[in-house]
Design goal:
Mean pLDDT: 87
Strand order of the largest sheet: 2-3-4-5-6-7-8
Helix content: 25-40%
CATH class of the largest domain: Alpha Beta
Distance between the termini: 39 Å
Structural class: alpha/beta
Bound molecules: zinc ion
CATH topology of the largest domain: Metallo-beta-lactamase, Chain A
CATH architecture of the largest domain: 4-Layer Sandwich
Length: 364
């Protein structure tokens, strides 16, 4: 009998992985000449910390991501820079992989302290501008719940309690926009941006062809799969987009992956393969749920899927995230022509959610 060995990744961030297993913060590490990783704390989150990468340029340093906007993370960043002989005032710029607060959050404070520019992809910059408009946000929130087929009886499970919500104030706006393929650092021309939408519309990876590293943000992580969701008010097929951009990393197999969370690893192709398998399994599960109960809404399909803590324990923010993830899979199945959506015009009557404009998914 022959067995096919499944390709595996190799963990290269040994000290990071050991720290992870001991539930400790990993050390600051000198990853390559002129390139360091500084872990900064991500409190009250199972990811525990964010890896900020520091790249030496002729006149100072540039950061890839900045960390979660709290004092403790700020202290980690300043102490980490001091330990490698730099000061926060030496930071010339922040390359932001995407606009989530664990990556972008501290960038404004870095800019205030050092005069650094903050750079990101246009689509993530636009999303931030939209987020500061509360009216737009409310409208999107309502249409999202309607679209998912949430009924009044379901609402208590979707209330986000204060403990799950953190007010970061106004997220830092971009000073510079980065396009796919751009080489954003004249002092380090081997570094190029690769647009990898999916986890966010403007997610960027940064590839250093001289040091052979892929700074992957949240796009490719060694242990978990990044959250792929249909965002509020968003059209399109983010899962399809993610799978496409994921597969665009093939060919970088000789590069070490420097992720924003967890630990460094090698084996891009193996990890890409695992991610494809993970999503194909989930797509099959969603398709089975739709075959069993044709005409289900996103909410109903979500409740029939397996969740790591069980659907009943998936409450509040987690339930919103779960529904977003389910809808991303449904939309992708529609795009593949495997199901169709029977959409009806929606209305919102005096705050009551009604089952219209929902995704009544049916197998074709
Ligand atoms: Zn993220
Ligand atoms: Zn993240």
């Amino acid at each position: 009998m022959t067995t096919t060995a499944r390709a595996q990744i190799t963990v290269t961030g040994i000290a990071q992985k050991e720290a992870w297993q001991r539930r400790e913060m990993p050390p600051v590490e000198h990853v390559r000449p002129g390139l360091w990783s500084i872990p900064v704390i991500f409190p009250n989150n199972p990811l525990r910390y964010v890896n900020v990468y520091v790249i030496e340029v002729p006149t100072g340093v540039v950061l890839v991501d900045a960390g979660w906007p709290v004092d403790e993370a700020w202290a980690n960043l300043n102490d980490g820079l001091a330990s490698i002989g730099y000061d926060i005032t030496d930071v010339e710029g922040v390359l932001v992989t995407h606009n989530h607060a664990d990556h972008l959050g501290l960038a404004g404070r870095v800019r205030d302290a050092s005069g650094a520019w903050v750079a990101m992809h246009r689509l993530d910059a636009e999303e931030i501008s939209d987020q500061v408009d509360p009216a737009k946000m409310q409208l999107r929130g309502e249409s999202w719940l309607i679209r998912a087929g949430v009924e009044i009886a379901d609402m208590p499970s979707l209330i986000i309690d204060a403990g799950q919500f953190v007010d970061f104030g106004r997220p830092p706006q971009a000073d510079r926009l980065i396009e796919d393929g751009e080489r954003p650092l004249p002092g380090a021309p081997a570094i190029r941006a690769l647009w990898t939408p999916g986890h966010s519309p403007g997610h960027l990876c940064f590839i250093d062809d001289e040091r052979n590293v892929l700074m992957s943000g949240d796009h490719l992580l060694p242990r978990i799969s990044p959250h792929i969701s249909v965002h509020l008010g968003e059209e399109g097929d983010p899962l399809g987009t993610y799978l496409n951009t994921l597969n665009s990393l093939r060919g970088l197999n000789e590069y070490e992956v420097l992720p924003a969370h967890e630990y460094r690893f090698s084996g891009v192709d193996a990890r890409v393969e695992q991610m494809n398998e993970h999503h194909e399994d989930r797509l099959s599960e969603v398709l089975t749920a739709i075959h069993e109960k044709p005409g289900s809404t996103t909410y109903e399909i979500s409740s029939h899927l397996t969740w790591s803590h069980g659907w009943e324990n998936t409450q509040g923010m987690l339930r919103h995230a779960a529904m977003g993830e389910t809808l991303a899979h449904i939309v992708h199945l529609v795009n593949r022509g495997l199901i169709e959506n029977q959409q009806i015009d929606g209305r919102l009557y005096e705050g009551q959610m009604i089952r219209t404009d929902a995704w009544f998914a049916t197998a074709t």
